[in-house]
Amino acid sequence: MRSGERRLLAAAIVGLALGGCATAAGPTGEPKAAGGAVPVARDPLASRHRDQALALERDGQLRRAAEEWKIVLTITPADSRARESLRALQAKIDEQVAARIDEGRKALARGVQLEARRKFLAALALDPANRAAFDALQTSTREVEFLTHTVRAGDTLSSLAQRYYGDRSRSEVIWETNQLPPNPRLTPGTSLKIPEIPGVPFVHPEARRPAPPVAAVPTPDVPRPGPAPAPTGPAPKEEYTPEVNPLLAEAREALERSDYPDAIGTVDRYLASKPGDREGLTLKKQALYGQARSQLDAKQYPESIQSLTLLTRLQPDYEDASALLRQARARIIEQHYTQGVRFYREEKLKEAIAEWRVVLEMDPANANARRNIDQAERLLRGLEQRMKK
Amino acid sequence: MMTHRPRRRPLALAALALLLGACATASTPETARPPGAAEPSRPGPRPAAYESEDFVVTFAQPGDTPATLAARYLGGADRAWMIEDYTGLQAFSPGQEVVIPRRPWDLSGVTPGGYQIVPILTYHNLGDQAKGRLVLAAASFREQMQYLKTNGYRVVSLADFIEFTHLGRQLPQKAVVLTFDDGYRSFKDFAYPVLKDLGFTATLFIYTDWVGAGRGALSWNDLRELSAAGFDVQAHTKSHADLRRAHGETEAQYTRRMQAELEQPQELFNKNLGRRSQILAYPYGRWEEGLLPKVQQYGYVAAFSVRRQGNASFVRPLAAHRSQIYSEMTLDDFVKNLNVYQEENLR
Predict the structure, then answer these.
(1) More confident residue, A255 or B37
(2) What is the CATH number of domain B117-343?
(3) Are A130 and A166 within one domain?
(4) Residue A14 CA from chain centroid, whole number
(5) Which of residues 156-175 of A touch B (CB under 8 A)?
(6) In angstroms, rounded to a whole number, what is the distance separating the alpha carbons of residues B216 and B125?
(7) Are the beta carbons of B84 and A215 separated by less than 8 Å?
(8) Which of A163, B98, B123, B177 is 20 to 30 A from residue B74's alpha carbon, by CA?
(9) Measured between CB atoms, does A27 come within 8 Å of chain B?
């Protein structure tokens, strides 16, 4: 537990109080450590920690309460009531931790990474050495919160980093997150993901989404720290779009885990209610593009062409989509052409001709295919005539 | 820009009330001392303490500091941070109660108010004068290191950090890691003396084609000496090429290239330092998902980009982050890279 500052004042007060009482509070015949006196009687000392444990527990600060019980037991190991209190508290903690992990897993199963992440973090906040929560956080929940910025004329990565993080050099994070080319020129109207950087508050007070409530325990007196002040003053509101629509968020999460069909399906549902919405369309294009690339990588050329065709219908000049389309078509043509050659060698002339016809359909100017077909047809005719004879 | 954990005054006030109550009882001699008990004895050679496997509860003697208490109860003065972090105090007045944790109490660094993040700083070349972005003036370097010392940062080894990412080691709340890329000779000339002075450790990420390649490069002999002096040496590939699959590169070509970039350094490490490298710095900080299995295949357990952010314990070890320190950065710019805590309501 992070007790540094929290213990500062309390400990200082202990020091002062002890200074005041030390002379009066002599040893009470209690056991003491080797060689030295115990300057404070065991019971008052233990009872202070006992009271603190109870107060913390009442306040819902279970982890710190458990530590205090352990301190009580360090001072008075035979205190069976303290031992029982610690046992009961530990059971309560274990129960809450298990519930949070369970909720996290369910959120993961629904594909809602951000919620899962918060649940696992909340489990660790109660039990910081919990292996299950830690592993789930490390391996399954990669997304962090982010907002979307629509590029305006004059924006640079540095100016955006200054605007959102108060630090121009954080432009590298925006660059990496958005997988931009070196020294990119930002096109007005396109969207950029501005991720949360742990330890760096968003400068805009409105920028940070309020975290949904996580815990079952009450939170009476620990105020959530407010958003950081905005040293650069408020910016025009239309320059950034806080993430609010759950369908969009869901689609974005699907995109993040490279589940493109899910992302496309979800964003289509969103677009059904908001046709032409720029953010939705941007997301759909990203998903189609990602899907096309992964299909290309998996050598699923027809599927890839289908994705790219949909994409170029939405935006003909989207990134290198038209180049990819040409590439995918070239690969398919190559596949059919090679398959034709293979059939030809096996003397399956009709099959070979069929493959090359596909090539010609896709690429009417393909002279090799045309020549091969002519040759195969001649051979075929010759064979047929010989058969007739 | 450094984020601190929030203090909790209500608790302290509650403690005050409790203490006043306790003081009132204790100040009555009749209740404090049973009849016939001896006069309070003088402190012996070792101060009194209550001890369990979880905690030591003791009382500061004149001259006690976190370091003396850590040496006495935790087996070494270098564990003073445990006492400082747990109590939030760096000094004690005589008689003051000190609760010393004996075991890690926050392995993952996650608390109800947020979670710990560890900045890993990356330097390249150093010189008398700054030159370009990546040659930092030696004076600026000293100033930055001094800032860390003065402001209570604890420089920890990269190996300790890796253990932190495996839930195997708690780190000080203000832990920072220092790394130096490429293997410039200037490390020995400029960084080494400063780090030695301040008692800081660091990791050098070297790309093996550069080792011994000229006057500006460290040799294997230098690296052996630095290892013996307590500095860590790890791999930065063979040729410092971008490890992502190039456009048009076939699977076979890529596999061959990765073998050269990732395995050849291992052979050279074995031959020259008698061990393999376990940690990799991606050249230019660039990586992609498809690369990670290959990195793992060649025996690396952690690898680093240069995405400018700190690392939570639960960062993916093969995709952890470092922050590059450039020569043009002012001390204020430098400090912006030292955030050690992310506030988030996790109750």
Answers:
(1) A255
(2) 3.20.20.370
(3) no
(4) 44
(5) 166-167, 169-170, 172-173
(6) 9
(7) no
(8) B177
(9) yes
**Residue A221, in any domain of the structure:** no
State whether B108 and A71 contact (CB < 8 Å): no
**Which CATH number fits the domain that encloses residue A181?**
3.10.350
Nearest chain B CA: its distance from A387 CA (Å): 46
For residue range B295-304, what is the model confidence (pLDDT) as tens digits? 999 999 999 9
Query: Hey, what are A230's tokens?
Result: 């905005």
**Strongest mean pLDDT among A9-18, A363-372, B2-11:** A363-372
* A residues 132-161 lying closer than 8 A (beta carbon) to B: 134, 137-139, 142
Q: List beta partners, residue B58.
A: B49, B98
Q: Is residue A250 part of a domain?
A: no
Q: Is the pLDDT of residue A32 over 90?
A: no
Helices (H), B74-201: 80-87, 138-150, 158-164, 186, 192-198
A36–B97: do the CB atoms touch at under 8 Å? no
pLDDT band at B17 (very low <50, low <70, confident <90, very high): very low
The verdict on A383 touching B (C-beta cutoff 8 Å) is: no
Question: Is A219 in contact with B326 (Cβ distance < 8 A)?
Answer: no
Supply B310's token pair: 């700190």
Would you call A242 an interface residue with chain B, using a CB distance cutoff of 8 Å? no
Q: Do A272 and A193 fall within a single domain?
A: no
Quick check: B111 and A128 CB within 8 A?
A: yes
Domain segments of chain B as ranges: 48-103, 117-343
User: Could you tell me the pLDDT band of residue A332, with boundaries at 50, 70 and 90?
Assistant: confident
Contacts of B292 (CB under 8 A, 6+ apart): B303, B318, B319
Whether A325 is in a domain gets the answer no
Four-residue CA torsion sign, B187, B192, B193, B195: positive
CATH assignment of the domain containing A341: 1.25.40.10
Which chain B residue has its CA at the smallest distance from A169's CA?
A: B308
Mean pLDDT, chain B, as a whole number? 88
Let me know whether A240 and A156 are in one domain.
yes
**Beta carbons of B237 and B280 less than 8 angstroms apart:** yes
Q: Are residues A358 and A379 in the same domain?
A: yes
Give CA–CA dist A352/A330, Å, rounded.
18
- Record the tokens describing residue A93, joined without a space: 């903690």
Q: Which two tokens stand for residue A160?
A: 């955006």
Distance from CA of A271 to the nearest CA of B (A): 30
For residue B324, which of B146, B135, B193 has the smallest C-alpha distance? B135
Q: Provide the residue type at A355 as one letter.
A: E
> In terms of DSSP bridges, do strands B323-324 and B120-123 run parallel, antiparallel, or are they unpaired?
parallel
- Is the residue at A88 inside a domain? no
- Domain C-terminal end among A140, A157, A175: A140
Residue A7 neighbours by CB distance under 10 Å = 24
What digits encode the pLDDT tens for the residues A103-143? 999 999 998 888 999 999 999 999 999 999 999 999 988 76
A positions 194-223 inside 8 Å of B (CB): 197-201, 211, 214-215, 217, 219, 221-222
Considering the domain architecture, whether residues A172 and A185 belong to the same structural domain is answered as yes
| CB within 8 Å: B86 and A3 | yes
Domain span including residue A150: 143-209+236-244
Split into its structural domains, chain A has a count of 5
Q: What is the dihedral of CA A92, A95, A101, A102, to 10 degrees?
A: -150
Contact A203, A163 (CB under 8 A): yes
Tokens of A227: 């958003």
3-class SS string, A297-337? HCCCHHHHHHHHHHHHHHCCCCCCHHHHHHHHHHHHHHHHH
Q: Is residue B86 a contact partner of residue B105, using CB atoms and an 8 Å limit?
A: yes
Which residue among A4, A24, A77 places its CB closest to the CB of B29? A24
Q: Which residue of A has its CA nearest to B35?
A: A28
A29/A382: higher pLDDT: A382
**Residues of chain B positioned with their CB less than 8 A from the CB of A129:** 104, 107-108, 167
